Amino acid sequence: MARLSPLLAAVGALLAVLAIYSEPVAGPLLFTLRGPNASAVVVFAAFTAGGIWTLRRASRSAWRWGLGLGTLFAAAQLIGWSLRTQNALLAPLLTADHLVWTVVHFLGTGWMASAGLAALIQVVDARAGRVVGVLDERPGPVGRLLSALRSPRARPRRIGLAMVMGIFVLSRLPYVLTYWPGIVFFDTFRSYSYARGTRPWDSYEPVGSSVLITAFQWLGTTLGTGDAGGVALAMLTYLLAASAAFTFMLWRLAIWGVSRGLWVFGLCWLALLPIFGMYSVSVVKDVPFSIAVTVLLVCLGELSFGPPASAARRWPWVLLSLAAIVAFATRNNGIYVLALALPILLGPLWQHRRHVLAVLGVVLIAFLLYRGPLYSALRVAPGPEDEAFAVPLQQLARIADDDLDSLTEPDKQFLTRIFGGMPPDQLGAHYVPALADPMKLGARKAWFQHSTGELLAGWASLAARFPGTALAATLANTVGYWDPDAPPYDGPNWWSDNNVRDIHLDIPSGRPASGPAAAVLASGLVPTRDYRNGVHDDGYRAIPLLGSAMSPAPVCWAWLISAALVARRRRPRSLALFVPAGILLLTCLAGPVSGGQRYTLPLFMGLPLAVSAVALSVRSSGRSPRRAALPAPGAIDLTGRAGSGRRLGVPSDPLDAAERGSVEQPAARRSAPAP
Q1: Helix pair 154-179, 260-272: axis angle to 10 deg
Q2: Which residues pair with 184 in a beta bridge?
Q3: Are residues 421 and 374 in the same domain?
Q4: Residues 265 and 357 grouped into a single domain
Q5: Where is this region: Disordered (predicted)?
Q6: How far apart are CA 281 and CA 545, in angstroms?
Q7: Element (H or E) spanning 618, and its range?
Q8: Which residues are CB-contacts of 24 (< 8 A; sequence separation ≥ 6)?
Q9: pLDDT for 217-259, tens place per residue?
Q10: DSSP label at residue 603
């Protein structure tokens, strides 16, 4: 294999360059290649050198996992491209004119992804001691900040927490000043209609979120600040709560012993990514829900990677329960996430099964009180039932559009009845592959003219007869979550809606004509959205890396790859935080939108946890890397495998010290000056 490495690496690099430098339009390969490009030579040389290194250094295990994930990645990209551009599965790409282009793109993308992942796995395996397992006590601002967060003394620890919290709040100030008093989403006006009594309460909007809007509306009125004051209070509350959740995450990551590089990545990701800045000034149900899920994930990380005494303390379980309650109260899919996640967590957290069952019991009691006395007091009526049937309705609409000539007369009568009298030959004009709302609204008109059983029986019959069309409908309605190149369907609003559902808020609304907000829109960085096609097709999407970082699909892939690398360590407890995240994604796949940014906002927020879990699972697996890494100068060895540092296991948790009432500091820290 060593002799063939240069040849294999060169072939893979050539395929990768052809895939990169051909136009993203299927056709004869030679006609889709761009003109002479000097950068292609540099890319080819770099890919060849990287391929040779990976082929010679990566273990068989690294290559097995890399090839598996890389092949899946390439297939997802190709199928997603076909659905987004051709509105069909792979059939158009397998014609004679397109076949070579298709094969080259699949092999080139697959090689890049497979080699890159194999190299990543090898680096994590071989340099585990530098990734995690060493407390970096070298001087510098970051080192002093980490030392403060890990300090067993209350004063420096509080200073460190205040500094991190301050960084997040300061990073949001430009957004607050630009969009004061906040941006109110279209959906939020339904909650305002409940608060003002212009429509009866129902569960279309999560009742907990509507209660929050009602409280802020009352506070704004009581304090004499009116609508603007109520919106500003909501915006500032959400901003401070998100900053506190991010601070909590970074504090626990420091306690768990992540490296300086991973910790800085988490800080930069959470402080600088524009999606967090925009949602910090947005008044919408997804923000409190995402904050709650983030706290829940940190608590699960604490049970997986925290100090050994973590599971015996009360606070992780109490905070886990509170976060779960807020999650189901502020977004309707939250209860589905928890109903599935908590029982499944009994697997990876089996040794703590009594605590997990206790949390499950607390959440169940809270949910019964939520759906019982609270609903009764507010007279909450059921929301539209069609909201839960996005998948079958999209499949029925696509079958009517693609297979009209194969439908029988009873089939056509069934579809006409389901979609409120609209005949099947007209459904295609209203069907949007990436958005289920038009079909849901059509079905809502006639929802009570048939039973749910009748809908499901007719859908099952048609889906069984046209399985390919049904599959294409579901893939087209979810492609934004799994195609690495897919743009998001939606994103943050750039101005407030108003005069929605007979509600007028006395706040700036509509497209701003002047001021900083108008300058942002005029910059060209704000993506446009075609509601019909449902894509962000320009703006920040054109900026390398930023466009991918702001899109749900790459973030979902980062979670999937992290989960796979953690699973590779065969330590079930390390997978605990991936359970609710995975189930949340499943609810998105069953939802009405392909690639919703705000639907996957908890995955954006929790990404530092997923990435850190890979390194933390290396330490926790107890497996020695193939090449032990020496601790950096000034570092404390946590593994005891290399160097002369003192064996510590994991960083001591200041909460443990507080419970004991005394602190026994490692010798390497006693002489360190207080930050």
Answers
A1: 30
A2: 283
A3: no
A4: yes
A5: 624-675
A6: 24
A7: helix 601-620
A8: 81
A9: 999 999 999 999 999 999 999 999 999 999 999 999 999 999 8
A10: H
Q: Closest Cα to residue 363, out of 331, 311, 323, 314?
A: 323
Could you tell me the CA-to-CA distances from 269 to 163, 588, 614 in Å, in that order? 17, 23, 17
Range of the domain at 394: 385-477
Phi, psi of 80 (to 5 degrees): -65, -40
Instruction: Tell me, yes or no, whether 389 lies in a domain.
Output: yes
Q: Do the Cβ atoms of 358 and 408 come closer than 8 Å?
A: no
Is 334 in the same domain as 302?
Answer: yes
Q: Where are the alpha helices (DSSP H) in 386-527?
A: 390-402, 409-418, 424-427, 437-444, 452-465, 467-476, 479-482, 515-522
Task: Answer for the pair 335, 328: CB distance below 8 angstroms, yes or no.
Answer: yes
Q: What DSSP state is assigned to residue 596?
A: B
| Same domain, yes or no: 291 and 401 | no
Which is it for the CA torsion 346, 348, 350, 351, positive or negative?
A: negative
Q: For residues 605 and 269, give the distance between their C-alpha atoms in angstroms, rounded to a whole number.
A: 9
- pTM for the structure as a whole: 0.90
The answer to whether residues 328 and 473 belong to one domain is no
Q: Looking at the structure, do residues 149 and 199 belong to the same domain, yes or no?
A: yes
Cβ atoms of residues 378 and 406 within 8 Å: no
413 CB-contact burial (10 Å; exposed 0-12 / middle 13-18 / buried 19+): middle
CA distance 73 to 110: 7
Give the tens place of pLDDT for each residue, 325-367: 999 999 999 999 999 999 999 999 999 999 999 999 999 999 9
The answer to whether the CB of 487 falls within 8 A of the CB of 83 is no
pLDDT at residue 310, rounded to an integer: 84
Domain end marker among 126, 156, 173:
126
* pLDDT at position 446 over 80: yes
Task: Please name the residue that has the structure tokens 């709302």.
Answer: 437
Is 375 exposed, middle or buried (CB count within 10 Å of its CB: 0-12, 13-18, 19+)?
middle
CA–CA gap between residue 133 and residue 650 (Å, rounded): 8
CB 21 within 8 A of CB 40: yes
Task: Please report the pLDDT score of residue 564 as a whole number.
Answer: 96
Q: For residues 291 and 550, give the distance between their C-alpha atoms in angstroms, rounded to a whole number.
A: 18
Indicate if 9 and 24 belong to the same structural domain: yes
What angle do the packed helices 452-465 and 390-402 form, to 10 degrees? 50
